[in-house]
Amino acid sequence: MPAMRLDASLLGLAAAALLGCGRPPAAIAPAPATGEPVDAGLADAPPPDAAVPDAPPPVAWVDPARCVSPCDAEPAKLVRVDRDGEPAAGGDHRVDASVVEPLRALIAAARADGHRLRINSAYRSYDDQARIFRTTKQAGRAARPGHSEHQLGTALDLDLRTRKAIDWLASHAADHGFALSYPPGKQRITGYRPEPWHVRFVGAELAAELRAGGATLEELLRASPARGAAGACGDCPSPISRADCGETTAAGTCDGTVLRWCYDGALAEVDCAASRQRCARAPGGELDCVE
Domain with 104 in it: what CATH number? Predict the structure, then answer.
């Protein structure tokens, strides 16, 4: 993700999605993010012929172990926008058509409260993400292709220049149907380090539900896996989309400031130094990024 201009307390943060890989979702447990893969089963799924009235469509479930479906899919309708979120034929960014109006409303509301939010990054194709992953050297700084929410066309990185702007987005994103995918302190659950600038459009109803429960989308889908839909990562065009855990366990290891652990059968990495933290044992006993 592009570099960001933040205040001094935020210079330790880096602007990229994290590393991940995947297995077919049927072989992935919807239980704790740090656990080994087990058979998810069908306990939470309705009978095949059961009618589910007014059931919303499943939400794309993308993390270090789950992929976009298909892995190299492109949204059906992408719209070009400029950095201010306005539709423009020569705009630098593309977003799914469903995002255009909510994004304009979000940016306008921020401006009304004294914050200028601009787009740093939006839709990326599978090939775009593969190129970013191959050319990024820092551990955990770039997601493997197929595992990035940016491929959905509904995720954006916003230029947040002050701590107040970061706090404003955290408080008001849900007002316009957006959710923060990677908030601080959730790296063991999401598989990604904190990115307060990364938001995903999930719709007003789901965004309100997440805010009311104080949960990330990842936590909601783990609690109710039938609400999500993940792709089988085996269909990814490039082998770099897959990274087995090898000898790394769910407990993880610290390699200097880098935390590595087995995330539902996929190797995940977080460089704690990006958040001005260190890799060490948290109060609960597991290895994590701590102050």
Answer: 3.30.1380.10
Residue 251 lies in a domain: no
Number of domains within the chain? 1
Closest Cα to residue 92, out of 104, 84, 100, 103? 84
Active-site residue list = 195
* Residue 152 falls inside a structural domain: yes
Considering the chain, what percentage of its residues have pLDDT values greater than 70? 81
For 151, the domain range is 8-38+60-237
User: What are 64-116's pLDDT values in tens digits?
Assistant: 999 999 999 999 999 999 999 999 999 999 999 999 999 999 999 999 999 99
